[in-house]
Amino acid sequence: MRAQFVLSEIGVGLRRNLTMTFAVIVSVALSLALFGGSLLMSDQVNQMKGYWYDKVNVSIFLCNKSDAESDPNCSKGAVTQEQKDQILSDLKKMSVVEKVTYESQDEAYKHYKEQFGDSPLASSLTPDQMQESYRIKLKNPEQYQVIASAFNGRDGVQSVQDQKGILDNLFGLLNGMNWAARAVMAMMLVVALMLIVNTVRVSAFSRRRETGIMRLVGASGFYIQAPFIMEAAVAGLIGGTVACGFLLIARYFIIDHGLDLSHKLNLINFIGWDAVLTKLPLILATSLLMPALAAFFALRKYLKV
């Protein structure tokens, strides 16, 4: 097979169907940009989970005098020093516990004023209305139920709260958005495949005389198919390159510059350039193979003598 002939046929085919070729490039670029974006979103969520789950605590809130009057869990009165010592002793004996920190009423009041000092409620609160608590760092954040089952309902304990539950709601929302992006990506891939198949068939129909002559002189099926397959592959590769450009530009302007989220949202540990760059070969390979395979199967009936 002469490479010059194949390349010339690719150029002819792309020029003949310029509008459809452009549509293929755009649809492939958008679908693969969404594909790469969904992969990066998964990496971002996993990185955030690893970062934040490592920082979450389980909090055991202790009964105060106000709770004793209004909360059924504290019906036996405010927590006593003996009860606090027993809770601390039991926590230190548990193998799932990595670290225990005590927060007094004065410390809780100070932290509340720092976070919500501008709210109208803050001016009416006093330190004795705040709750003492133990903040427990677990070796494995998934083992919250071990603490909850051991201390819920115990005398002097008002409630056991897991900060991980709050994060689970956030990550559930992010995962839902990621699956929505994947659904749109799947629809865009279907559209791209339909455009590729249609473009290849139109190209094959417009050159049916040439392919008929080639069949009559004994050209192999692969020799006849090669220009059409490579046309689709080239259009897909251009789309994949554009998709890679989208991802690089998005990473640069959204996180590093432009919106500059890495500085505005410094509590979020954003994925690095390495995560983006490792996805580019996969996107380029998909952009090359997907159109080529679609063209191969679309052309089978045109090779029948």
From TrEMBL:
Keywords: Cell cycle, Cell division, Cell membrane, Membrane, Transmembrane, Transmembrane helix. Residues 184-301 form the ABC3 transporter permease C-terminal domain. It is found in: Cell membrane. InterPro entries: ABC3_permease_C, FtsX, FtsX_actino, FtsX_ECD. It comes from the Bacteria. The keyword DNA repair does not apply. Gene3D superfamilies: 3.30.70.3040. It is a multi-pass membrane protein. The chain crosses the membrane at residues 21-41, 179-200, 221-254, 280-299. Forms a membrane-associated complex with FtsE. NCBIfam families: FtsX_actino. Part of the ABC transporter FtsEX involved in cellular division. Belongs to the ABC-4 integral membrane protein family. FtsX subfamily. This is Cell division protein FtsX. It comes from Streptomyces cynarae.
